């Protein structure tokens, strides 16, 4: 049995490395003459097919396992000694592998930590303010010896405000805007209460902001077993990957990415820093708890019965509150977090390109973790380290170099809100906006073994499809079923809901280190053009169809609302048609690329993890539906302004493709 498990894990780790190859082969190219006659190196000739075969066959699951084991030996929270040691190990490993350049890039940033002597607590108090029950201060060790590590932090949420508050509890389902609206309609007053919300449908920072805006004194977050332990309490970690009762949803509660004291500018030594009280961080105490602790609160909660869709996986009936069945009972929330200036490090390794060394294909992942980070992020980092080893071994043995430079990135303090990657992009935005071809993020190489899950800018769709057809299927049962490639299983097990003959490609939102490159700089969807050169295989037709479908969705959902304000989408729609025509004409001349401006794909304002096509339009229309009559006038002006801007940018993109000034 143990041997079978080890073999299965090795296959899974090997597959994780191959998943990264799907993305790398989508954008990497060997020098141009390889495709015509091969490239003379230290040995005879090496073709593109040989390069692909070498890399595919060179990925070794045993190496990935060893990398992963090293990365998960100790806690490595952002900005701590553990993260510093991890960054140095990655840098030293890349130097040993033979990278042309390796850089450690420091940033002085404001991060958040729990007290080492006074843990955060949630207490249930009776009418005499006596403690009836108190929450756990750490997650319960269940399996591995390292779970007893004394350096593991007390349970906390990053940037949650320090404070000690007492009040009634209100259950707010997933803490979304519609959930708070339902509570208001039901006559449940959130102001002055401590909100208890389930984590899993929206980014916790969005939940925190909504609770704070509603006047809540504090916020408690838990992961309901219906979402995170659906097979029941006996099939959780360490018997499966499902969440055990004592596990709490660590994470940041800061809504703005990067260092909160240096907005829009890099957190270098010379940076101007705003006062901490002006920073965009929560002003209320927030604490995550396990669902066994949430049970203790929910079973005592009073008020009206929550609607059926709000019921969860705990063996009780969920009520809304406020308050408890014992009318004089309250909850006390004590948070002793401290915000601290500290240093986080990015590690950047470069394998220079042969023909276009100043053009970069970036591959990256973050180095920090809330605890040990075996899946998030180290499964991705371990696979990335093995991939860099194989590419550099190929170079050392044959002299082969990619056409464009490969830039490997290890980001610092991502868990706190994409801190390291955001600061790096802010520091080098001019160079990056002109030189980066694409960025490939590998936050988690594996979170299961069912099929591939991909989020991408529309321009990369076809390239990823074609690359995944080259990658051997790591699942032997799927191979026996005739599905011999990663693409085959992806298309079979995760079909697109609208085009079921294709695999599902999700839109890219936020939540990991691609955010600032994708949505701030436009990588990989730059208004970027190669002249008299090899052209990257971006999916122009797919992108145009994506735009057309998104336009149609807005018209179908909000057409009546727009008509009520005499707002016409004619020019907006015509701009999309012009863009489609320009692509058709452009492809007759050359197979090329286009600009994907961030006004088309962007994170949703109500859930930063999610992506929304034409987010500026859709989010504003959503706000209009929810707004009071007094606020609607300003919102309609914002919508009209943004509609004009998007229309202009679509027409501009069409002109860029056509080479026609007029």
From TrEMBL:
Pfam families: PA, Peptidase_M28
Domain named PA: residues: 165-232
GO MF annotations, alphabetized: carboxypeptidase activity
Family matches, as InterPro entries: PA_dom_sf (IPR046450), PA_domain (IPR003137), Peptidase_M28 (IPR007484), Peptidase_M28B (IPR039373), TFR-like_dimer_dom_sf (IPR036757)
All copies of domain Peptidase M28, residue ranges: 346-528
Listed SUPFAM superfamilies: PA domain, Transferrin receptor-like dimerisation domain, Zn-dependent exopeptidases
Family indicated by similarity: Belongs to the peptidase M28 family. M28B subfamily.
Name recorded for this polypeptide: N-acetylated-alpha-linked acidic dipeptidase 2
